[in-house]
Design goal:
This protein is mostly helical and 325 residues long. The protein has 11 helices and no strands.
């Protein structure tokens, strides 16, 4: 009789357990339910702001972080933000997140990367349990009037590229005008290529000295572009990511383009000085040999910079959709 009574009560016990499990699951997933302190959304967002917002404008708030696609809710290992922070790839320079802060990010993402305002008690736990806050040093993200250092770096890079491209175009127009005037003088005097002599040298020097407007426009654009690019280079070096062994990233290509630009710019300055001296002296041979190279390198410099900008601006596709707001 006792065995029969136990068997009759067993299905009822199963129903109670199933109902309890369903209730617990619904409570855990419903908005406003407290998460474990280790997964506190407010503290996690504050950590991201503390270490990332100095360079990245999107790191200043939850909505921006979610929209950027750097986290995959429920999957820390597939989240670029966590991957970069855990590996030490980011931030590029000290201070770095502590092991406890890294674990906080992992737990928050693993629990679904909930918004701070969607979890009851988040504000209280953030005030009580974390030294990281949105007002921590670097949290505002402002840089020279721009939203972040990345925004300044981007603006300086594109603007300097435009200025240097304009300088190259003006320089090419100046060279074409001098060449056309020189060839016209030679044709008017029936001077063949093999007959170029002192009379042509004097004419080249005279043509160069007559109208300096395009020359100084070229120099001014060049100086403005390089000055602005210096600021771009300084901010870029301060944000340079560590190279990841066995991987070529967009940042690596961007960095190589910077060094390529530096080498091209150095050669351009040297060729420009020699070309100017040759024009002053009317040295036809030197002008002919250096002029084309000088113009080609002058146009290549902004193209390299523009290419570097395009590469780094290519969007990184999130592996899954960002969390719903």
């Amino acid at each position: 009789m006792k065995t029969s009574s136990s068997l009759r009560s067993f299905p009822a016990l199963l129903l109670v357990l199933a109902a309890s499990a369903a209730w617990a699951q619904d409570a855990a997933s419903s908005p406003g339910t407290p998460l474990p302190p280790a997964a506190d959304p407010a503290r996690a967002v504050a950590v991201i702001a503390k270490y990332c917002s100095a360079c990245h404008g999107w790191a200043s708030g939850y909505k921006e972080i979610a929209a950027e696609g750097v986290i995959v809710p429920g999957k820390p290992s597939e989240s670029r933000l966590f991957e970069y922070v855990e590996s030490g790839y980011m931030p590029p320079s000290p201070p770095a997140p502590s092991p406890a802060e890294i674990e906080l990010l992992r737990a928050w993402i693993a629990s679904g990367a909930a918004a701070p305002e969607a979890v009851s008690g988040a504000t209280e736990s953030a005030d009580a349990g974390s030294s990281a806050s949105p007002s921590a040093p670097g949290g505002s993200g402002r840089f020279l009037g721009f939203k972040s250092k990345v925004d300044y770096h981007r603006a300086a890079g594109w603007t300097s590229s435009g200025l240097l491209l304009a300088a190259g175009v003006v320089g090419a127009v100046r060279a074409y005008d001098l060449m056309s005037a020189g060839h016209e003088f030679r044709d008017q005097n029936n001077i063949g290529e093999e007959d170029i002599g002192p009379i042509c040298y004097d004419e080249i020097a005279l043509l160069w000295s007559r109208n300096q407007t395009l020359r100084w426009t070229h120099v001014s654009l060049l100086a403005a572009g390089e000055t602005l690019y210096l600021g771009n280079a300084i901010t870029g070096m301060s944000m340079a990511r560590k190279a990841k062994p066995g991987e070529i990233s967009k940042s690596d290509i961007h960095r190589w383009a910077f060094f390529t630009h530096a080498a091209l710019m150095a050669s351009e300055i040297v060729m420009g000085l020699f070309t100017t001296d040759a024009l002053k002296r009317g040295d036809h041979e030197t002008v002919s040999s250096l002029g084309i190279a000088h113009a080609a390198v002058g146009l290549a410099i902004p193209l390299v910079m523009i290419g570097a900008g395009i590469v780094i601006e290519l969007p990184a596709r999130p592996k899954t959709a960002p969390p719903a707001e």
